[in-house]
Write a structure and sequence with these properties.
Number of helices: 14
Structural class: alpha/beta
Largest sheet: 6 strands, mixed
Helix content: 40-55%
Distance between the termini: 60 Å
Low-confidence stretches: 109-143
Order of helices and strands: EEHEHEHHEHHHEHHEEHHHHEEH
Number of strands: 10
Strand order of the largest sheet: 5-4-3-6-8-7
Oligomer: single chain
Bound molecules: adenosine monophosphate, FE2/S2 (inorganic) cluster, zinc ion
Mean pLDDT: 87
Shape: globular
Length: about 350
């Protein structure tokens, strides 16, 4: 199969777009798609300070790489969950994030050196970056180069317990730590973004993830969840806006992007994810996609369009729960008194 743009050998065929691309055109196409989503859903501007939550997996590392290549100032946040699974899952994930930020630093260094040697080249780069939405590391050409930082926080070191340990002693975690894990991750991402002054928190959720969540919420008509599901969750009370810039890209496109860009990521899934309902929903939608290319994309994007056109507007008001600030941590919560995160620790320590 040949690239639609240059007739070189294609590395990917995206049947839902009827588009096959070679490696070079694919790594131009992906950031351009992400930039379109950022603008379409008004996620952020170059003035925002962005914190990308990176898990060491393909989606979030690809997202960080794409935002940097588009010229956004995005730092990373890795949360160490203390999950081993017999292969050091959390440690290995952290190493992938650290290796990524090191590779960006050395790449930037190389660009800076070549920029300082040849002023003409930097002039050319600036000229070309202004007519293209894709500018590769433009800051490396300025006198005060900016380098992305990776913030890391270990849950066991901070709270004295790993995620499986917390899940083992609370009702919410019975049998599976995923629900407690999601709760702790969301809380800590919010807290850290707030404390470090980031206006935007970006996660690597892709279209496969979002379509599976939508499917689950539709199966049970969780209208409140449906009303809140979307690529942007507005900021509130000093807490960062949450965005999902990969929401229109398929998971296989992110894997291909990492491969072509040479981004090393953790291939293993979290050892607790096996048997999760969301994975069963993903498989169902993947089967549908095989029979009918574009079905998954249509399902999710038609939902977003319907919402833009007012479907669920009534429910927005009816069902958006009233939020209060948690008495202990100040984060917005629907519960009176303590939020669900703080309630995890009340009987242990505060
Ligand atoms: P998941 O909830 O595991 O499907 O992950 C969804 C998104 O949450 C990822 O794309 C990341 O942006 C973020 N994320 C997941 N795990 C971590 C982690 N340990 N540290 C920081 N961000 C994470
Ligand atoms: Fe949290 Fe698997 S990543 S339980
Ligand atoms: Zn091409
Ligand atoms: Zn709280």
């Amino acid at each position: 199969m040949k690239c639609r743009k240059c007739s070189e050998v294609a590395v990917i065929n995206m049947r839902q777009h009827k588009l096959a691309l070679c490696a070079d055109h694919f790594i131009e196409w992906v950031p351009a798609q992400v930039e379109k989503s950022i603008r379409k859903y008004r996620m952020f501007t170059p003035q925002d300070r962005i914190l990308v939550a990176v898990s060491g997996g393909k989606d979030s590392l690809a997202l960080w790489d794409i935002l940097l290549s588009l010229g956004y100032r995005a730092d990373g946040l890795y949360l160490g969950l203390g999950i081993d699974g017999g292969f050091g899952y959390s440690d290995e994930s952290q190493r992938k994030c650290e290796a990524f930020v090191k590779s960006v630093e050395s790449g930037n260094q190389a660009i800076r050196e070549s920029g300082s040697q040849g002023i003409r080249e930097s002039g050319n780069r600036e000229a070309s970056s202004s007519d293209s939405p894709i500018s590769r590391f433009p800051d490396s050409l300025t006198p005060d180069p900016w380098l992305p930082k990776l913030h890391t926080l270990s849950i066991p070191a901070t709270y004295g317990e790993s995620i499986p340990e917390v899940a083992g002693r609370v009702q919410r975690g019975r049998g599976k730590p995923c629900s407690v894990c999601g709760l702790i991750k969301r809380h800590e991402m919010n807290r850290i973004a707030h404390e470090l002054g980031y206006s935007v928190l970006a996660t690597g959720h892709n279209l496969d993830d979002e379509a599976a969540v939508l499917f689950g919420n539709t199966m049970t008509w969780q209208v409140g969840y449906l009303a809140r599901q979307g690529p942007v969750l507005p900021e509130g009370d000093g807490f960062a806006r949450k965005v999902k810039p990969l929401c229109r890209l398929y998971e296989r496109e992110m894997a291909a992007y990492c491969l072509v860009r040479g981004i090393d990521y953790i291939y293993e899934e979290c050892p607790y994810s096996f048997g999760a309902t969301s994975i069963a929903h993903k498989e169902l939608l993947a089967e549908l996609e095989r029979k009918s290319p574009g079905a998954r994309q249509n399902f999710y994007l038609s939902f977003l369009r319907a919402k833009e056109n007012g479907f669920l507007n009534d429910h927005n008001q009816e069902l958006s729960p009233l939020m209060h600030a948690c008495e202990r941590c100040g984060q917005p919560t629907t519960a009176p008194g303590l939020c669900a995160f703080c309630r995890l620790w009340v009987n242990v320590k505060i």
